[in-house]
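Sequence, please.
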């Protein structure tokens, strides 16, 4: 039974701007069908006592808490700026009107 049709492969190839020969379409159709068959074998396993997981390893947030800490004053931050205007670093225009 063909689960992935040749038209579907051609459609996806078109969306991806790929060109496949008829032989390649046939080959990919067979390969994708084999992949689906393999994945369907997993449905035969009894997973009633398996806890659902999203990762193999126990993944936790490793980011630190976002805390306000003392940092440079505006004067210190602008101390080495070649040009300043209204308390900000002034740079050359990068866009032309």
């Amino acid at each position: 039974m063909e689960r992935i049709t040749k038209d579907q492969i051609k459609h996806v190839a078109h969306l991806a701007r790929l060109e496949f020969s008829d032989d390649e379409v046939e080959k990919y159709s067979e390969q994708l069908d084999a992949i689906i068959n393999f994945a369907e074998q997993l449905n035969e396993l009894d997973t009633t006592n398996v806890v659902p997981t999203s990762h193999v390893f126990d993944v936790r947030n490793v980011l630190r808490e976002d805390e306000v800490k003392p940092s440079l004053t505006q004067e210190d931050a602008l101390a080495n700026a070649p040009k300043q205007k209204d308390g900000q670093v002034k740079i050359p225009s990068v866009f032309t009107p």
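The chain has three helices and two strands.
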